[in-house]
Amino acid sequence: MARKPYESEFKVIIPRRKKALNKAVKLMSDRFGGVTVMKVKGAWINDKGQTIYDDNYLLFSNRDLNGKSPNIMKFDRNFMKELGMELGKDTGEDEIWIEEDIIRDVDFIKIPKRKKLRQVV
Predict the structure, then answer these.
(1) Would the pTM count as exceeding 0.70?
(2) How many other CB atoms are found less than 10 A from the CB of residue 114?
(3) Which long-range contacts (CB under 8 A, 24 or more apart) does 35-44 make?
(4) Could you say which DSSP state residue 65 is in?
(5) DSSP labels, 73-99
(6) CATH architecture of 7-103
(7) What is the dihedral of CA 99, 103, 105, 107, to 10 degrees?
(8) Per-domain residue ranges for the chain?
(9) Which of 15, 53, 63, 91 suits 113 as a labelling partner, its CA being 20 to 30 A distant?
(10) Of 95, 75, 69, 77, nearest in space to 15 by CA
């Protein structure tokens, strides 16, 4: 029996700017079917050795192959790199962090709708 190919989770961190968030949410949702957004705090060291704290958004989506060719992930990687470039230009950032985690499996479990119970009087 052939082993199922690995799937991916893609992440990006962007500055907390509404326009950039809306763009990233729309594009990632269109590509992956949805996106999760969390507010996060980041920190980095500037040229003077000072710690600078930033308010950011962490966005992540998963690629569930579900019958699709694993080759689609090559296009997903390119999509995320291009998204990072666009968001960097939109926000004026020097760098945008993106990540791909290879994961064993992603499943979206469909929950059947419950039938309404009839009331007995």
Answers:
(1) yes
(2) 6
(3) 35/59, 35/60, 35/61, 36/60, 36/61, 40/13, 42/13
(4) -
(5) HHHHHHHHHHHHHHHHHHHT-S--EEE
(6) 2-Layer Sandwich (3.30)
(7) -30
(8) 7-103
(9) 63
(10) 95
